[in-house]
Amino acid sequence: MATLEDYAELLADLDAPQREKLESVWPEAVRQLSPRGLDNWLKGTAALSHMGRGDHIVRTWIETVPTVARDLGEDIIPDLAQACLGFASRTSGAVIERVLATAPIASRRLSDPDLFRAYLQLLNQLLAQAPRGLRPMLEHLEDLLGVLTLGGLRRWASWGAEAHRTDYEELSRYFGLESAESQAILQRERKGTLFVDIHRRIGMYLRALWGRDFLMRPTAGDFEAREGIRPHIADFFLHLPDAYDDWEGVPGLDLYRAAAAHAAAHVVATTAPLKGDELNALQRACIGLIEDARVEALAIARFPRLRDLWRQFHLPAQDGSMTARFGRIALALLDPDAPTGDETADWVRAAFAGADLGTAQSAFDLGLQLAHRLRNEPYSAWRDGQAAPYRDDNRYIWEFEESVDWEKGMAPDQQVRKYVSVSEMVNEVEVETAGEDAQEIWVAETELFDDDGVSFNEKEGKEPTAPPVPYDEFDYKIQMHRPAWATVQEKRPRLGDPAEIDAILTRNRKLTQRMRHLLDAMQPQGVQRIRKLEDGDEIDLNAATQALIDIRMGLQPDPRVMMRSVRKTRDIAVMALLDLSESTNDPVTGQDQTVLDLTRTATVLLAEAIAKVGDAFALHGFCSDGRHNVFYARYKDFDQPWGEIPKARLAGMEGHLSTRMGAAIRHAGAHLGQVAAAKKLMLVITDGAPSDIDERDPQYLRQDARAAVQEVARTGVIPFCLTLDPRADQYVAQIFGQRNFLVLENVERLPERLPQLYAGLTR
């Protein structure tokens, strides 16, 4: 367990009251925070103490941050510290202290890290617009967030800041809830039911219906408008608005129940997504309308009273808009006895009654027929839709080859590898400037030969890279694998000067000579005869002769007169997987070399050692730039000799980007799976914990790496980690197991320890 003495250097400048407060909070903080969370918390403590804005700020930070981290996750700690440091030049220490003191109120009421970050942005805006109003607002924050969403709080504060920009006295009265107009705006912006007040009840309600838990998150879509955004299902979460007003006399709580039950029905009844690439907007809307009715019909078959819950949100409309038309169809499908006065709605109801509701294909087929009947109706895909407020936007039921970001629009085009005939390749206009950002990569299906009989690949071509490979990724929060979540892209290693590798071998000649006897002992010795056996394959003539002599002399003969010939061979494949993230470019303390330089040196010596023994080995490396860009480089493959090309690739090795370890381990395991060997060793060399730019939760990638290690271990691979991070004990055992890692305290000893480690693991 971590102790305060471990951080003595970081906390050396704290005064006695601050240290006393830290010691009193420390036992509870250790139970609530991970080692990384503790590190960020104490770094924030040191930073605020150096800010010089008062002792009370540091003590409040120490006391409140573990509570905020418990509510919102540890990733919020650096954001809160950065916000407070930014406030220092714009307001007083007393205001910063109130921000920290009220942070647990905001974290509890907002209950979502993204909303809390938006709340910090609101405070930053108020410091620019109405700095005198911030402190009285914070004094009444619990009352405000008790009736307002974050969007409502923002509009309430913006109204007061604009109305009383130059009247400081009235500004203070407004933000202190003392003026009549402040109360009036507050009443106008307040919502009927807040998600934070009822989310536990909704969770228990869904558990009672379906016998399972559903993950839910609030969404703040009403920063500028009170309508908010529609419910939706994404990333295994049910996203519900952070507040609901009463709707046509129906309480907001019932609207929450209806929205959550409908979204849960989608999750339960949807076994596979529908293909939506070749459909137009009207067809997708019609299919979604039928699919909504299908999942509700399946839920009503199990729980009939759900019909009454959903029915109250379907009001008949007789205008000619497409929204009204969809509303009449939805009502007809939900309530078989409801009159619609719409010929199309009656036709859909009759067809739906005879459909097989067990699969979504029935909704797909019926939706296409409905779209055909409505093809001549005016329809806008972005404005018209269903009127029922509880229904989600149906993104969950669709699958598109082109990924769509519903918040930002269409995502950038991904590169497509297209295999074409030689004639297509020849007839296509060549674009000499096309590079890594080309939208299509054309690959000829067969070789193209020149007049001299030599292929163009041999003359001018490059070694082809493998197509992108998707891998599942383990999400520890839901205890499930996210399918095809990370993509590994193999890239050609940059070539360097192989003379640099030879220079490394020359500089370390003494080390290789010291290891010569150890490596000689590891080399296979061919056929060996094991003598003195009672049960063997053949007679040992020398032992048999000695036994006859003993018998003639009246002595007890030795019965071990057999021997067996044993072939001493090594059947081992070794994969060295190198972490090539940006942190490897950091210099080693007290040396001119970087971590990457030492990693290169150690890898070269390891390659020399393995080549001398004769084992099959491969040298691969990885880095990442988000889940879709896990870059993987193969410096030497198993079937490739240790020579000039691998040496040139190692000489050009560079450190970039981040460390998404799980996907790289899975890809390396796939390469090891293609090698026939009795023993397979994967040696992972890294200088830090798994991390990436698109994942803020440190436990997520660690748990995924742990799952990846277990997956490759089940295939017969022995994973082992050599880490250069002195604090790796806090997480590396969790990933690789208690006996499958080594923490190298002195990084400069890496070139010596790596070949020794190989020798010990492959005996």
UniProtKB/TrEMBL annotation:
State the protein's name: VWA domain-containing protein
Record's Gene3D superfamilies? von Willebrand factor, type A domain (3.40.50.410)
Which residue numbers delimit the VWFA domain? 571-762
What InterPro entries does this protein map onto? NorD/CobT (IPR051928), VWF_A (IPR002035), vWFA_dom_sf (IPR036465)
Provide the taxonomic classification: Bacteria, Pseudomonadati, Pseudomonadota, Alphaproteobacteria, Rhodobacterales
Q: Which domain of life is it from?
A: Bacteria
